[in-house]
């Protein structure tokens, strides 16, 4: 004999089964931050060419090389390579230009161990130049607004592809050194003098913190607004 249940009991069982239904994974993923766009940078060569002179660097070349060294320092570039032509211009003139460029870069603050000199085949070109270059990073700016969809018709609550694109594009356009997107910066030297000062005060039982600045103290106004 078939047993019949009251209508109210059937409704209660249906409600309990609905509460026990697990939440689909796609809903959970839709609430997580989008990863469609990430700020990245690509390594690209930065290079200038200097004509070979028998007397070494010219005034114009020295000015260009100084700007090159400043750009290298701002970008925290790595090794600078001087490619000297072989089998083209006069060998002595190529040597003087290359050595003059190396000495000038060192005078501009580039460490000597960051400069390398290599030869390249000029293939008989007497006008072949001295090439000076290093690898720098350039931020990759994404193109936004290419795949917008009608978000009002989204029934699955999925993340839209363009969400976060504008933030990433602004970050890539404003960052001072795109290499920061790829690797951390090198640590600077420790301040040994400050460390000795703090240790000396600590041994004497004195306060080791910096003196308070009166201008940095805030006062709450009692004025009636």
TrEMBL record:
Signal peptide boundaries: 1-20
Sorted UniProt keywords: Signal
Keyword flag Isomerase: no
Pfam families, A to Z: Pilus_CpaD (PF09476)
Keyword presence, Nuclease: no
NCBIfam families the UniProt entry points to: pilus_cpaD
Protein name as it appears in the record: CpaD family pilus assembly protein
Organism per entry: Phenylobacterium conjunctum
Biological classification of the source: Bacteria, Pseudomonadati, Pseudomonadota, Alphaproteobacteria, Caulobacterales
């Amino acid at each position: 004999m078939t047993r019949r249940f009251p209508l109210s009991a059937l409704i209660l069982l249906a409600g309990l089964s609905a509460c026990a239904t697990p939440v689909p994974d796609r809903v959970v993923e839709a609430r997580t931050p989008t990863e469609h766009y990430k700020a990245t940078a690509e390594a690209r060569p930065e290079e200038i060419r200097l004509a070979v002179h028998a007397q070494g660097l010219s005034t114009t070349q020295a000015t260009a090389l100084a700007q090159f060294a400043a750009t290298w320092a701002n970008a925290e570039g790595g090794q600078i390579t001087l490619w000297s032509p072989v089998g083209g211009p006069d060998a002595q003139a190529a040597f003087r230009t290359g050595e003059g460029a190396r000495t000038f870069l060192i005078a501009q603050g580039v460490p000597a161990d960051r400069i390398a000199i290599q030869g390249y085949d000029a293939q008989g070109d007497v006008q072949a130049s001295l090439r000076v270059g290093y690898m720098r990073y350039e931020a990759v700016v994404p193109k936004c607004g290419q795949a917008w969809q009608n978000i009002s018709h989204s029934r699955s609550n999925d993340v839209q592809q363009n969400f976060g694109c504008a933030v990433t594009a602004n970050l890539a356009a404003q960052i001072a050194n795109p290499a920061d997107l790829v690797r951390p910066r090198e640590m600077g030297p420790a301040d040994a003098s400050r460390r000795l000062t703090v240790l000396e005060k600590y041994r004497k039982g004195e306060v080791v913190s910096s003196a308070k600045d009166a201008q940095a103290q805030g006062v709450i106004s009692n004025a009636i607004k």
